[in-house]
Amino acid sequence: MNLISVENLSKSYGEKSLINNISFSINEGDKIGIIGINGTGKSTLLKIIAGIESYDNGTIITKNNMVVEYLPQNPYFDENSNVIQQVFKGTSPIMKTIRDYENSLEEVELNPEDEALQKKLMDLTSKMDNLNLWQIESEAKAILTTFGITNFYEKVKNLSGGQKKRIALCSSLVNPCDLLILDEPTNHMDNEIISWLEEYLNKRKGALVMITHDRYFLDRVTNKIFEISKGQLYTYLGNYSIFLEKKVEREDLERSSEAKRQNLLRRELQWIKRGAKARSTKQKARIDRFNKLSEESIDLDDNKVEIFTSFTRLGKKVIELKDISKSFVDKTLIKDFSYIVLPKDRIGIVGSNGLGKSTLIKILSGDLIPDKGTIEIGETVKVGYFSQEWKPVQDDLRVIEYIRETAEFITTSDGSKISASQMLERFLFTSEMQWSLISKLSGGEKRRLYLLKVLMEAPNVLLLDEPTNDLDTETLTILEDYLENFNGSVISVSHDRYFLDKIADKIFVFEGNGIIQKYTGNYSEYREKIREIRGDGYEESKKDLKKDNDNKNSNEGKNAKSKSKDKTLKFSYKEKLEYEQIDEVIEGLEERIAKLDEEIAENTSDFQKLQELLNEKEDAEKLLEEKMERWTYLNELAEKIEEMKK
Does the keyword Cell membrane apply (predicted)? Predict the structure, then answer.
């Protein structure tokens, strides 16, 4: 059944057109993800669908008596209310009845002898019975408990930002509705809650429309994607993976159409240049067609973020943490933690909210000092710190002025000079937007601007605290590609599993009470190791795989040796011996380097041992490079000897 039909919808803010004559429908069972570059109108479209934002033109037809529940990015909180009151704050009769019941229950607990309050509670209890609302109340408390909130009467003002966001999400989930609208529901949520939310939304039967940057979440929950690009809306049936495939097909088709238009335009231009006169109707029509073709240009690939920045050389010594601890009041966040950050380290930090992940990043950045322990920072280290919070700026500061505070020009890795204005254009801030007040930007545009400022400082150590919050999927993809080729160290707190899989090769897990566990591998590999520890047959399958690989390598080694023995070579005795043994020598060096990498990962807290291992690895890599050069020489010589035999 159709819930909403939208025809020729348009919306502008001043001279900025966000959406232009778009049409779409939302049906029962739809689970729709909306994606697009920050500032293209995604949140505005959600507000229009929710009925809380006006639009300029178009028609919206909704099902009779349709109930919509909307969770904004930044929900409003009554700081003086308690948790359960905030959950049932809705204006519907159902929410009001449950809220009145919970308030009455609290009143009776405070004044158990008051007969009037007791009668009021009994009346509300009967009303809860008649409306069958106990399931909603119990579901809300179960969700809150899952979210780590067990004191239902705690004042909202005493809660953290993450806890408040979870309360708002709980409120939206339990409120019965035909259409659930969520704007960035995974922001400030830890990975366990995100996994729970995936499962919950998959089981939920009602329609869903949401904005999220979490690509795994999109892939596992949605069955339809709306992409907003250059004021237009494109609909893709399927999840995020299917969207990526279909988008490539659409862009290929557009390129093909544009190529045909360009060819036709060139022919028409030649005709015009030959001096055609618009005397006849036929000639005038052809000139009109030329003018129309000139105006119909398709803009391709001009809506993508480009990251080209400079890099400061990084020495061997980066950051060394030795037995650091940090507590706030009576809560221990970090206890006796040691680690040596290596050049090109890629560390992802995960764990439940409130356990100290951001605290560690702030200690690394120098914003916080540990209670005990030492931190040593290498002389060549230049830290770029991308914090969760948008740092306050003057209300009258313009975009271009904010970036020029860092540099008027930067030299990129390829040696070219780029102005602040050009860098802004590569980050999708047009020349008009560059003179806009920062206060006028969307939340996502501010995050993108802040990211540009950090990267323009030419850091060689990047500290990223929830970098994926409020960034669009396109910018995230470009950022991931940049980080993969970044020559320095990267340490990132993130709840985005896709992001961690792309950029991390080590995972630090905050387990509570100051304990930080270290794992080698990306996020998915860390999860596999956890399942292995819990026991799920993974270890046996891994052993079988290793056995197969060992047998395969053994056979390949035997074949290689037999082949080398079959050859009659006209080397000197020393060269012949070296040629026959060099493959095994190289293989042995590669295995030793791999083993050293494992030992380095296991000894990041033992400073003396780690330095010995790093020195040994450096020597092994130099020797491997020499042997590879020698291998090339010997093989080229062998080929020449064979040719001479023919």
Answer: no
**Any domain includes 104:** yes
Determine, yes or no, domain membership for 267.
no
Backbone angles phi, psi at 125, to 5 degrees: -65, -45
Write the CATH number for 458.
3.40.50.300
**How many Å apart are CA 289 and CA 293, to the nearest integer?**
6
Amino acid at 362: K
pLDDT digits (tens, 9 = 90+) for 576-590: 777 788 888 888 888
Confidence of residue 25 (pLDDT cuts 50, 70, 90): very high
| C-alpha dist (Å) from residue 138 to 82, 134, 135, 142 | 17, 6, 5, 6
3-state SS string for 237-281: ECCHHHHHHHHHHHHHHHHHHHHHHHHHHHHHHHHHHCCCCCCCH
Q: What is the pLDDT of residues 493-506, one digit of tens each?
A: 999 999 999 999 99
- In angstroms, the first-to-last Cα distance of the chain is 79
Residue 203, classed as helix, strand or coil, is helix
Residue 326 and residue 437 in one domain = yes
> Which CA distances in Å does 386 have to 168, 466, 494?
26, 8, 12
Question: Please, which residues have CB within 8 angstroms of residue 190's CB and are 6 or more apart in sequence?
Answer: 350, 351, 352, 353, 495
375, 347, 350: which is closest to 497 by C-alpha? 350
The per-residue pLDDT for range 82-140, each reduced to its tens digit, is 998 899 887 778 888 888 888 898 888 888 888 899 999 999 999 888 877 888 889 99
41-69 residue pLDDT tens: 999 999 999 999 999 999 999 999 899 99
Same domain, 355 and 433: yes
Q: Would you call 10 helix, strand, or coil by DSSP?
A: strand
3-class SS of residue 365: helix
- Length reported for the chain: 646
pTM: 0.68
pLDDT-derived band of residue 573, with 50, 70 and 90 as boundaries?
low
Number of domains forming the structure of the chain: 4
For residues 197 and 186, give the distance between their C-alpha atoms in angstroms, rounded to a whole number: 9
Q: Looking at the structure, tell me whether residues 436 and 372 fall in a common domain.
A: yes
DSSP 8-state code for residue 572? -
Same domain, residue pair 435 and 486: yes
Four-CA torsion 456, 459, 462, 464, nearest 10 degrees: -30
